[in-house]
Amino acid sequence: MLCLSFILLALVAGTSLGAAIPQDALKQSCSLSKYQFLVPHELEAVQKMKEHFEDIMLLSGHKCNTRLFHRKWSTPELSVPDRVMLVEAELDLAIAVLRLPAAPRLAELRQQPLAFLTQAREDLRGCVAREAPSHHPSGKLRHWLQRLQTAKGTETAGCLEASAILHLFQVLNDLRCAALRVQCT
Q1: What distance in Å separates the CA atoms of residue 79 and residue 87, rounded to the nearest whole number?
Q2: DSSP 76
Q3: Secondary structure (3-state) at 38
Q4: How far is CA 20 from the centre of its chain?
Q5: pLDDT of 85-127, one tens digit each?
Q6: Angle 148-96-70 (CA atoms, 0-180°, nearest 5)?
Q7: pTM of the predicted protein model
Q8: Dihedral sign, Cα of residue 173, residue 179, residue 180, residue 181
Q9: pLDDT in tens, 72-81
Q10: Closest by alpha carbon to 52, among 64, 63, 44?
């Protein structure tokens, strides 16, 4: 009897709570948990593309000095909203260069990573819009975002492509850190 009373009380409380919280708010919570542990076939696709790109770079003899992904700070040092903004900017760059025209084999190898990164960026944008729409980046992140903008205007498309592709695993680690939120250390 006591158990039945408890169940009824829980149902009534749950119904009252459910009415107090709009259902849309529950559906729109930000969840990046699927990026905490990346699926092996996604990582393999990125690795294959990266290796093929490295082979092309070796044959071309093309050299770049873009040090865009060399930072004096690590992603876990940033606040959670800064991490999300960082990864969104990194993904914007990666997606832009993966959409550039490429040799047929490289274009084929880019398709799966491009689809994955595009989905991740859309998920991140949803989180920014819901959780921190008016967040202002910290000084560290603001400085890096300025470097990114400068590089987009001064570096060749080939050097930006090389920098983004060669550092895709760093971008994926940053994505994982953003997904882990405060647990990222």
Answers
A1: 12
A2: G
A3: coil
A4: 33
A5: 999 999 999 999 999 999 999 999 999 999 999 999 999 998 8
A6: 35
A7: 0.81
A8: positive
A9: 999 999 999 9
A10: 44
